[in-house]
Write a sequence for this structure.
């Protein structure tokens, strides 16, 4: 009877050990401390409560920011790993250290800060401390005239595209372009853009022929100026376009009328 009891005790210990091993391998809530990406000008992006990053361990998990600021805590259920890879904004796909991402052609401006959800950043770490690095570049500009500006449009004069679909390597930081769009349009969600300093997120590239910058006022009138040529933008760099409405001369847009329009 004593031997039988010992045998049962050993079996119970073995079963508990196996169960514990299964629990350790199951997804559970993990907290990650995250520092936002900083750029060459000293500008540091800000996390907003509810921001979502993609975090890869054995697969891609969605993690949510718990507070605003340059540093935040991301929370979510996932499996522990010896190496983590992350990207912001959230992306569902990941292969061999590479996340796909999008630099949007339509961006919402933020006073003295990067546009909402347009700056792509990545991180990799063997711990739950994440320091994000920028995958995009920024174009800095200011508005200072009394003209009520509604839109700012930045267009490449060459073959390189400032917006579109990209691939971000979270291991070496390399950014490659899948497909591009020639123009980035910045607005204030339908309101006029106030006098201040702003930034546009763009794909890192060398814009050999420079950029065209068009500002549109509340009446639909437009004014266009050009930057200097050969602008080299690496990930994390900032290029200052200056006050883009300083010498603006607005003209009414050309209207194309059809016989039906004229009849009306």
């Amino acid at each position: 009877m004593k031997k039988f009891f010992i045998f049962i005790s050993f079996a119970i210990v073995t079963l508990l050990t196996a169960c514990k091993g299964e629990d350790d391998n199951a997804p559970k809530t993990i907290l990650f401390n995250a520092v936002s990406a900083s750029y060459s000008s000293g500008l540091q992006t800000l996390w907003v409560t509810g921001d979502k990053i993609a975090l890869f361990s054995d697969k891609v998990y969605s993690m949510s920011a718990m507070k605003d600021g340059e540093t935040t805590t991301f929370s979510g259920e996932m499996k522990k790993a010896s190496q983590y890879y992350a990207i912001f904004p959230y992306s569902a796909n990941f292969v061999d250290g590479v996340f796909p991402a999008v630099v949007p052609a339509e961006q919402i401006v933020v006073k003295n800060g990067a546009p909402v959800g347009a700056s792509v950043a990545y991180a990799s770490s063997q711990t739950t401390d994440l320091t994000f690095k920028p995958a995009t570049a920024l174009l800095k500009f200011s508005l200072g005239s009394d003209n009520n500006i509604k839109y700012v449009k930045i267009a490449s004069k060459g073959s390189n595209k400032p917006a579109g679909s990209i691939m971000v390597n979270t291991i070496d930081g390399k950014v490659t372009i899948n497909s591009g769009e020639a123009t980035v349009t910045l607005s204030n969600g339908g309101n006029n853009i106030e006098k201040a300093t702003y930034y546009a997120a763009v794909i890192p590239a060398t814009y050999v022929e420079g950029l065209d910058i068009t500002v549109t006022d509340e009446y639909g009138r437009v004014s266009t100026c050009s930057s200097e040529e050969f602008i080299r933008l690496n990930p994390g760099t900032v290029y200052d376009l200056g006050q883009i409405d300083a010498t603006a001369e607005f003209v009414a847009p050309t209207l194309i009328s059809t016989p039906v329009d004229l009849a009306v």
Summary: The first strand starts at residue 28 and ends at 35. Residues 1-19 have pLDDT under 50 and may be disordered.
